[in-house]
Design goal:
MoaB/Mog_dom, Alpha-Beta Plaits, alpha/beta, MoaB/Mog-like_dom_sf, CinA-like_C, elongated, six-stranded mixed β-sheet, five-stranded mixed β-sheet, CinA-like protein, 412 residues, Molybdenum Cofactor Biosythetic Enzyme, Chain A
Amino acid sequence: MIRAEIITIGDEILYGQITDTNTQWISAELDKIGIRTVRKSSVGDTEEAILQIFNEASQRADLVIVTGGLGPTKDDITKKTFCKYFGSSLEIHPQALIDLTAFFKKRGREVTGLNKGQAELPTNATYIENTMGTAPGMWFEHEGVVYISMPGVPYEMKGLMTLSLLPKIQEHFKTPVIFHKVIRTVGIGESLLAEMIDEWEDALPSHIKLAYLPSMGSVKLRLTGFGDNIDTLEQEVEAEFQKVLPIIQEFVYGFGNDELEEVVGRLLKEKGLTVSVAESCTGGYLGHQFTKVAGSSAYFMGGILSYSNEVKINQLGVKAETLAKFGAVSEETVIEMSENIRKLCNTSFGLATSGIAGPDGGTPDKPVGTIWIAIASEHQTITKKLQLGGFREQNIHLTAINILNLLRKTWL
């Protein structure tokens, strides 16, 4: 296995002034070609810190990828630090200057003295053209380790990686063939899922690895095969896939890049069914899960955001006596909400949510995270009580996941 370390340089990252999205993208792309990222690091714009992280990375990685610090201003010191690390010096690279001049000319500008410095590279660097900006990429080989330096601007970095560096990395390291297959599950936690498939996981061939990728409310299982032949790998991974699927079938909602709301929408559309929502604690988030999917107008008709009791009564038609006797967070209330919204919108299903999302509003009988959900059809209304706890955003998100999954499992 080829090991990689990704280093981001810049005080602005450490201070939280910008979000580092580069390392996530780079590590995902490296994973696709069979290179394992073993460490991600961020350092400020100081020579001492950069040199230290270079020394450390060289001891644990075969490939060190660096982004940031390549601008024309004095605070961008990455190239000078590379010179000190390798014992080299900066010189104008002829091809870099030609490309830089063409870049500015295309935009009706002349290369200034400050920008001309962008064409200066360490003498031991292999020049990598950046067609999307002025800071070139650089490739170094030193004591068995490859170092790559790129600008930190995400679209420039992605352009360099995609057009030039990923093919060059694959050629240099003779990377193995890699194949992924992903199973998407919902309604079961990571630890319980691991217990269910423990024996199957232990019996996996050594060249096929399993990764658990949990997120809020769901868990992805990723099978990854490594080898020399893609067709053989696909067959072997598929064989293992078919072994595990029957064990966890009740929790599987999709594969690959499937999202729960997309799967539910696809099933509604295939069956010619429609849905509407009456939301309280989710505050429009459930409706958003439907409408963020392209083509959702075929099955999502609309809804009412009944956050207050007045709206529940006046617009949604919930009985005042129901609210007075049982409260807004109750099975009785969500039954009326779901049944009334279904009738108002003339849909196959009416979905309702009401609960205490937090952080305040809980009582001993109904603590924060107490949620009632309901789904009404023409012939039946089903309900479920959730005890979530946690944070407000988490409770809202998990409520939406639970009701989408209840709809999928019960009627779709």
